Every structure is written in C-alpha cells, then in structure tokens.
Amino acid sequence: MGEFSLFHWLIFVILVSPIVAGVLLLGLQKPVRIVHGDSGLVKTGYIGYSWTYLIFGWFVPLIRGELGTAVLHLVITLVSAGLSQLIFPFIYNRQYMNRMLTSGWQLDTSDANYELAKKVLGVRSEPRTL
C-alpha cells in the first residue's frame, strides 16, 4: 500500500499522453482576438491544442454558442464510446477559428498572437479595414 505499481504508472501515462502529445504537436492553447467585420464585436478565439475540450468535451462548443456543433460532437462521443474525446482536442480550435473566419470574423491585427494565428490557420490575405 502506498506504492505505485507498474499498472498505476501505465494508467498515468495513458491519461497524460494526450496532453503531452497535443502540447508537443500543436503547442499550448493561445487566445486570439477576433473582430466581426460588420458589427465590430470582439470575441476571443483560440489556437493550439484545446485542453479545455479534453476536459469538458462537447460542452466547449455549447458554451461558445455553437449548438449544432455541440449536438454533433455529443452524438459522435456517444457513438465512439468517448474515444472522440481524445481526438477532438487536436482539431477543435482550428475548426472553430475556421468557422469564425469564414462567417465574417477577422483576426485582430493588434493582437500579440496575430502573426502566429495567421501562420497556424493558413490565413494569407490581410484583413479589410474596419
């Protein structure tokens, strides 16, 4: 009692490996300001590995106001018996930002992570002036 067996270490490695792989492959989750081109509303988007999705799952799109995406992710989570919860953190932030940028939102050029976000998201053109 009180000792970590090989089984305990194996479980620990399995639980921590998605976070380590995500951070190594995509980097830490970083906030990026986005501005709606027509209304001027400001929101925060994210780039990098979504540790919030790893912890909270389909609640993340629900909280960000994406009801359809949340329902789809819930269904996929149920069908996959939760395995999708290990895959979606790698792709969710990029998908979210792509949906925002194709629906009238723009990266804020004054944001500290602007150049990194442009590179990560593959944005080539400069934003319109507001």
Topology of this structure?
Elements: H1 6-26, E1 30-36, E2 42-47, H2 51-56, H3 59-63, H4 67-79, H5 84-101, E3 105-107, H6 114-121
Task: Please describe what this structure looks like.
The chain has helices at 6-26, 51-56, 59-63, 67-79, 84-101, 114-121, and strands at residues 30-36, 42-47, 105-107. It has 130 residues and is of the alpha+beta class. The protein has one domain. β1 and β2 (42-47) form a beta hairpin.
Described by strand count, sense and barrel closure, the largest sheet is: 3 strands, antiparallel
Tell me the fraction of residues in β-strands, as a range. Answer: 5-15%
Structural class: alpha+beta
Radius of gyration: 17 Å
Concise summary:
With 130 residues, the protein is α+β, with helices and mostly antiparallel strands.
Q: Which short descriptors sum up this protein?
A:
130 residues, alpha+beta, globular, 3-stranded antiparallel β-sheet, 6 helices
